[in-house]
Structures are given as structure tokens and as C-alpha cells.
Write a structure and sequence with these properties.
- Helix content is 51%, strand content 7%.
- It is mainly alpha-helical and 203 residues long.
- The protein has one domain.
- The strands form 2 sheets. The chain has a two-stranded antiparallel sheet.
- The longest helix is centred in the middle third of the chain and has 22 residues.
- It starts with 9 loop residues before the first helix and ends with a strand.
- It comes from Meyerozyma guilliermondii (strain ATCC 6260 / CBS 566 / DSM 6381 / JCM 1539 / NBRC 10279 / NRRL Y-324).
- This is Protein ORM1.
- It holds the Pfam family ORMDL.
Length: 203
């Protein structure tokens, strides 16, 4: 049995008492005047980002977010239609493909690019606002995170409309319908309010 010295450090006496009682406590390491506590990592694969702190909100308000403000211009809306038409014309040159596959590939290519751009890449391509947007995707930065603004409604409507067009021109083929439908869901679901600041970690 271990005898505890009355002159020992209170933390040490508590640790020794817990050890003798079989109680496990988080380990700590001392570096100078700082104490670092090692906590267990969360095993959940679905997590929500914590709300922004007051300091982060102040940093975000210092300058306009030029990384996200451009999507509100009408020219930025038109470019989505132009890109879709460009992709369709590009796939038309592949003569071995049927028209249903040309529309399906147009849909898939647009949705993959859209997902990477709006929901995969985080932060900004340049340093400003003291890194206040480093943990946010472009979609979460648009309109300061407000949901269902005119811009966000338009960006949500485009993949849905493209899905309907692709389904129609693929003659409602079941396999292509499923492929187009899953692709559409992958870019629409992250745009919903329930997915705001949601993170899915698979590793």
C-alpha cells in the first residue's frame, strides 16, 4: 500500500490516490509553465463545427469576403449555364456515346466540379481577415452563412434542373436515373440547412 506524504503536491496526491483505487485519469505533461492535457479524440464520424467565437466574427467583419461575394453577381449565375452547355457540346464530339450518356456525363461532370468547388475546398485562396474562414467551405461563406438566399436558391436549382433534363434525355433509363439521382443528391444535400457546418469524417 502506498503512503501519501502530506507535503506532496495536491495533484500528485490525487493522482496517486486514484491509481491505488484503480481509477484512470487523463495523462498530463508539463512543459515549463504550461500544462497540456491529452484528451481522447472523438470517434464520431459526423460532427458540427462549433459556432464562431466573437474574435472570429470580428475578423470576418473587418473586410468583405471577396472569396464568396462574386457568386452574387448575375454574370456568375450565367456562367453555370454556359459551363453546362460547354460540357454538352464537348461530349457531343465523342460520337461513340449515345445521347443519354452524353447528358449523363454532362450532369456528372458538372456535379463533381460543383461539389469540389462549393463543399470540398475550405478557406480562401489568399490570406485576409486573419484566417477567419479557414474552416468554412465556400458554400458556408456565401451570404455570411445565411440560408436560402436568392443566390443559394439559384445554385440549388441548377443541379436539380440538370438532373431533370438528363433524366428526360436518357429516356428514363433506370440505371442512368439512379446514377443521375445519386449525383444530384450529393450536391443538393450539402446545400440544405441541416448540413450547415456539418463535417463527415471517414478516417
Amino acid at each position: 500500500m502506498t503512503t501519501l506524504s502530506p507535503f506532496a503536491d495536491p495533484n500528485q496526491r490525487e493522482s496517486e490516490a486514484n491509481s491505488s483505487a484503480g481509477v484512470l485519469t487523463p495523462s498530463t505533461s508539463h512543459h515549463g509553465a504550461h500544462t497540456v492535457t491529452r484528451s481522447r479524440r472523438s470517434s464520431s464520424i459526423i460532427q458540427h463545427l462549433e459556432p464562431d467565437t466573437l474574435d472570429t466574427k470580428i475578423d470576418q467583419a473587418l473586410n468583405p469576403n471577396v472569396n464568396a461575394s462574386w457568386v452574387n453577381f448575375k454574370g456568375a449565375w450565367v456562367i453555370h449555364i454556359v459551363l453546362i452547355l460547354f460540357l454538352k457540346i464537348l461530349f457531343n464530339f465523342i460520337t461513340v456515346l449515345d445521347n443519354d450518356w452524353k447528358w449523363t456525363l454532362t450532369n456528372l461532370t458538372y456535379n463533381i466540379g460543383s461539389y469540389i468547388m462549393f463543399h470540398q475546398v475550405k478557406g480562401t485562396p489568399f490570406e485576409f481577415n486573419s484566417g477567419a474562414y479557414d474552416n468554412l467551405t465556400l458554400w458556408e461563406q456565401i451570404d455570411n452563412g445565411d440560408q436560402y438566399t436568392p443566390t443559394k436558391k439559384f445554385l440549388m436549382t441548377v443541379p436539380i434542373g440538370l438532373f431533370l433534363v438528363s433524366t428526360h434525355y436518357s429516356n428514363y433509363n433506370l440505371n442512368l436515373f439512379i446514377l443521375n439521382g445519386v449525383s444530384c443528391l450529393c450536391v443538393v444535400v450539402p446545400k440544405l440547412a441541416i448540413s450547415h457546418r456539418l463535417r463527415v469524417t471517414l478516417y
